[in-house]
């Protein structure tokens, strides 16, 4: 690359860091890329670090030593996250959201890039220190949320299937008890999709009694994987016994009036 003026260099460095969260980038990379001295690169990074922290974009961590460098860690402080989830709460409480049978319509929000980016950053901020190797979810509604969180954590997504496919190759399947219906169901994961002893973050859209999440935890045990966190967008409050104890929820369904098609939500345990 041709030698850039400092203003252009700052823009390019910022873009490079934002596109590679949680990745350690050596200072020598930037120095060679821009034909600049390491001291100049360090000064540039100090400016970017101050901007990131002032604007709530995230943290810029410097690792010293020969193998060191700089790493961008996306962060959304708790108050900013609270405002973002409150905004989502208001949309979900809007008229026409409750469908026949007591189901909540969320497809439009789970397809909205801006809303997904905010939810993903909230989850990534909560679980930033878990050092997760993978984000796991079960098909199908949890998939957009898992990818949103994984994008900020910069790790792959692993999708658990209800029914295995020929294209999955060899799979591991387990039976689990659905927490709400008490029915025996099956979930599967391709063997080659997850190396043994991986650290896995579970993300899902909705949790009642937690049977599906407990099923994923049991499935991960077959891979000798470590569950480093569980995050759900929404949980219900009218559950006698929860199968999962350790989890983070962003929203909680407090009341549901099926006749008038109205629901009342509150913030989840993350904001208590």
UniProtKB/TrEMBL annotation:
The keyword Repressor does not apply. InterPro entries: PRTase-like, PRTase_dom, Pur/Pyrimidine_PRTase, PuR_N, PurR_Bsub, WH-like_DNA-bd_sf, WH_DNA-bd_sf. It comes from the Bacteria. GO terms for molecular function: DNA binding. Keywords: DNA-binding, Transcription, Transcription regulation. GO terms for biological process: negative regulation of DNA-templated transcription; negative regulation of purine nucleobase metabolic process. The keyword Cell cycle does not apply. It holds the Pfam family PuR_N. NCBIfam families: purR_Bsub. Belongs to the purine/pyrimidine phosphoribosyltransferase family. PurR subfamily. Homodimer. This is Pur operon repressor. The gene is purR.
């Amino acid at each position: 690359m041709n030698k850039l003026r400092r203003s252009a260099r700052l823009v390019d460095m910022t873009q490079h860091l934002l596109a590679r969260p949680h990745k350690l980038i050596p200072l020598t990379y930037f120095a060679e890329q821009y034909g600049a001295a390491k001291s100049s690169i360090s000064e540039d990074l100090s400016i970017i670090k101050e901007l990131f922290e002032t604007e709530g974009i995230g943290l810029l961590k410097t690792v010293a030593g020969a193998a060191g460098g700089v790493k961008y860690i996306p962060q959304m402080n708790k108050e900013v996250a609270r405002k973002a989830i409150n905004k989502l709460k208001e949309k979900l409480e809007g008229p026409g959201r409750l469908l026949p049978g007591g189901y909540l319509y969320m497809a439009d929000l789970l397809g909205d890039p801006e809303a997904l980016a905010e939810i993903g950053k909230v989850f990534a901020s909560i679980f930033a220190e878990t050092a997760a190797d993978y984000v796991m979810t079960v098909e199908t509604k949890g998939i957009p949320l898992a990818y949103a969180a994984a994008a900020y954590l910069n790790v792959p997504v692993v999708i658990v299937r209800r029914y295995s496919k020929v294209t999955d190759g060899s799979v591991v399947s387990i039976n689990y008890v659905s927490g709400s219906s008490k029915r025996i169901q099956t979930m599967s994961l391709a063997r080659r999709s997850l190396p043994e002893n991986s650290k896995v973050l579970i993300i899902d859209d909705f949790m009642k009694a937690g049977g599906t999440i407990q099923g994923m935890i049991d499935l991960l045990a077959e891979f000798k994987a470590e569950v480093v966190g569980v995050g759900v967008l929404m949980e219900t409050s009218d559950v006698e016994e929860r199968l999962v104890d350790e989890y983070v929820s962003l929203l909680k369904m407090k009341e549901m009036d099926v006749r008038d098609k109205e629901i009342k939500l509150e913030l989840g345990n993350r904001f208590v």
